[in-house]
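Chapter summary example.
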Amino acid sequence: MKDRTDLPRVAVFSLGGTIASTNQPGSAGGVTPQLGAAELTAAVPQLEDIAQLETVAFRQTASGDLTFEDLVALAAEITARLSSGYAGVVVTQGTDSIEETSFALDLLVESDRPVVITGAMRNPTLAGPDGPANVLAAVRVAAAPHADALGCVVVLNDQIHAARFVRKTNTSSPSTFQSTVVGPLGWVTEGRPHIAFRMRDHAHFTALAGIRFPAVALLKMSLGDDGRLLGPVESLGYRGLVVEAFGGGHVRAALAPTLGDLAAKMPVVLSSRTGSGSVLQETYGFPGSERDLLERGLIPAGFLDGPKARVLMSLILASGGDINDVRDGFDSMGQTTR
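The structure predicted for these 338 residues follows.
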């Protein structure tokens, strides 16, 4: 029997999703999450030569049903493994919410060793499922000695993406995950991860176990929107609001006063619905422009899109932060590389 004790240790946590989805024999219904980490890794025999694996079936659900509380619990398990000497951790999950869950874990787990999120676009019942190749690449990154100081990364289609930049851009393509602002951090070729650059570190959030996360609303601006959804935001119990505005950070002029009133009562973050590029701060001066909204107290999201801005604000508020802490948190996120 091959001696594997000299291989690095990697923990693989499964959460469900397409990568774990199959159907019951003879069933005419759609696939559902049924496979756990043990089954997913068993389908990739090459892993035996890469790492000593611990497999944990942590959740079994569609990724849209994951919660902040799930991620806090997962972050605690990941931190325990990395603190005890594991080389890295891999998390398999559905792709629908990877851009948010990976960014949340990037903020929740403080370690020099990699936390790698992966999934699949083709479930195991289809021709050419991509799950096994993605698991293989993810474990290679997690086990690589030079994959330090990357923060949380997303590995699919042999590309390595920073959690703070990656987005799902297509409903079904295996190349759906893109980092349109900076491109991928690296790639996997011939079984070796290549790292092009690393991210600057940022603040982390700990001791959130047992805390009830505050509600944060996310609204996208659209042509002719009369703003009627803005009025009830406070009365519905939301603690904060993220606005995905037009272009560089613009809304209809008629909505600017309402947003200003809300910004005096709760943190209101201004992001762009384009999904790429930083929110402007000093270019346009018309009513409803970014200059107007920032003067009314809105907080610029920088390069973060709406869903990621909501993740960051939620963690800051759950940690007991106020409007000033939210502003500081988004300011500090602006420096991204080193």
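To summarize the output: The chain has eight helices and 16 strands.
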